[in-house]
Amino acid sequence: MTVVSSVNVNGVRAASGKGLLEWLATSGATAICLQETRARPADLPTAFTSALAGWHLTLEPAEAPGRSGVAVLSRDEPTAVRRGIGAPEFERSGRYVEVDLPGVTVASLYLPKGEAGTPRQEEKDRFLAALAQHLAEAREKAAAGGREMVVAGDFNIAPAEADIRNWKGNLAHSGFLPHERAWFAGLCDSGWTDGVRALHEGPGPYTWWSYRGRAFDNDAGWRIDHVLATAGLRPEHAGVERAAAYDRRWSDHAPVTVRFGRP
């Protein structure tokens, strides 16, 4: 059985003092993918590293301090680690890392946010193109090694109308642009399974809510955090751990967990 959780922590130092450590202590996952850690190894808070007993930490920080950063926590020690998506432009951006574990490769992804009609969106689109190629190659390598693959993280894309509360008001916004949704659909058409959507029809469950206004209280969210898996892993249970109240949130994202079995 493979259980993968994913969450954008919105800064591991801040989250460690708000509830991340308590969540880690109760996790039953075999691997946890973290995004937007915003910390180099020397910057990790002592409370966080002390809470990792029983876990192996693979951290991929961004070259720019205080930016991006991804990590994988795994119960088993990785037999191999690969960093980046093979595109020189994003080599030190702290947006992708993958580890080989028994029977499965697990990757943590933090996809750029983008902004429609700006160079930031052009950068995101270049990342999407490079990532699609990398995932196709990584899946083939995993299969050749007798492993399945899971890629989990903050994709910054809501794939369909069921994945965003106010979809009509966001048709021209990055994260819900037609070509972004087509890109995500292309992944699923090529053999990747959306672990949450395979078990939940929607609308939602949402994984991100703006801190502005009453987005969280009104559940006006986006489902942009995803756990995708290759065909040899069958989703058996999937859920989003939405905080019980606004003041109990330790990130603007909520953890997503999918339990996989074998067909």
What radius of gyration results from the CA coordinates?
17 Å
Which structural class should the secondary elements be placed in? alpha+beta
Low confidence ranges: none
**How many H/I helical runs?**
5
Alpha carbon gap, first and last residue: 11 Å
Our estimate of the beta-strand percent is 25-35%
How many strands?
Answer: 12
CATH names the topology as Deoxyribonuclease I, Chain A
CATH class: Alpha Beta
What shape does the CA trace take?
globular
Keywords:
single chain; alpha+beta; 21% helix; 25% strand; globular
Describe the structure in your own words.
The protein has 263 residues and is of the alpha+beta class. Helices cover 21% and strands 25% of the residues. The chain has one domain: Deoxyribonuclease I, Chain A (4-Layer Sandwich). The protein has helices at 12-16, 20-26, 46-50, 119-144, 178-189; strands spanning 2-8, 31-35, 56-60, 70-74, 80-83, 96-101, 104-110, 148-154, 193-194, 225-229, 234-240, 256-261. Strands 3-4-2-1-12-11 form a six-stranded mixed sheet, with no helix packed on it. Strands 5-6-7-8-10-9 form a six-stranded mixed sheet, with helices on one face. The mean pLDDT is 97.
Summarize the structure.
The chain has 263 residues and is of the alpha+beta class.
Topology summary:
Elements: E1 2-8, H1 12-16, H2 20-26, E2 31-35, H3 46-50, E3 56-60, E4 70-74, E5 80-83, E6 96-101, E7 104-110, H4 119-144, E8 148-154, H5 178-189, E9 193-194, E10 225-229, E11 234-240, E12 256-261
Parallel strand pairs: 1-2, 7-8
Antiparallel strand pairs: 1-12, 2-4, 3-4, 5-6, 6-7, 8-10, 9-10, 11-12
